[in-house]
Design goal:
By secondary structure, the chain is mainly alpha-helical. Helix content is about 55%, strand content about 0%. The chain has one domain (about 1-155): Lysozyme (Orthogonal Bundle). α7 packs across α8 (about 160-165). The model is unreliable at about 5-25 (pLDDT under 50).
Length: about 210
């Protein structure tokens, strides 16, 4: 199911700070979803809701991305892919904020690339060596599919999914940072509308969940 959900995104045009050890023993379900997302086209989101969200988010993103056309491209793709993967788009922006500070050309010391810091080995694992991970659309498709898969196998445990996405399972530093950005910078919904966020705050007692 991750090959039908990652071979669902790439035909629109032509992870994550993983540690090197994660290139072995890869979950075949994730590979399936990843390949599916990268091969299909998805265009099914509510236009009015998207435009309301775009307007609110554009003002915040302008602090990090000066080019209005690039901002629009990032936000449209985040909204569409988050909708497809059943994620909150503000969560995706929070991940990008922490991972790359919205630098599409960012490369980590372990080789993770782009807005969502996707590791290049994913391209070879799903038979798409031609994919360019610094391209906005490609990177967002990979990143959202991977995060959605980890959230599924964690049975909705956002903290566990975020830690796995970052290659830091069992530690809270990365989830703290993402949840902090989600709550204080990017969130457009009330916490009552975000049960995954509420549950993580209740279970883990994250510092980022405390109102200052």
């Amino acid at each position: 199911m991750l090959l039908r959900s990652l071979v669902s995104g790439l035909t629109l045009y032509a992870v994550t700070s993983f540690v090197a050890a994660q290139t072995t023993d890869i979950d075949p379900t994730l590979l399936e979803k990843l390949a599916a997302t990268m091969a299909e086209r998805y265009e099914g989101s509510d236009r009015f809701d998207m435009e309301v969200w775009l307007h609110a988010s554009d003002q915040r993103l302008a602090r990090f991305v000066g080019d209005p056309r690039e901002r629009l491209e990032i936000l449209q793709l985040v909204y569409r892919e988050a909708h497809y993967q059943q994620l909150d788009p503000d969560l995706i922006l929070a991940v990008m904020h922490v991972e790359s500070a919205f630098d599409r050309f960012a490369i980590s010391r372990v080789g993770a690339q782009g807005l969502m810091q996707v590791m290049p080995f994913w391209r070879l694992e799903i038979g798409r060596p031609q994919d360019i991970l610094t391209e906005i659309d490609t990177n967002i498709r990979y990143g959202t599919a991977i995060l959605a898969h980890y959230l599924t196998i964690a049975e909705g445990d956002l903290v566990a999914a975020l830690a796995r996405y970052n290659g830091s399972s069992g530690r809270l530093n990365y989830p703290e940072r993402v949840v902090g950005r989600w709550r204080t910078v990017w969130r457009n919904k009330t916490e009552d509308e975000l049960p995954v966020l509420q549950a993580s705050c209740a279970i883990y007692g994250l510092e980022a969940c405390r109102d200052k």
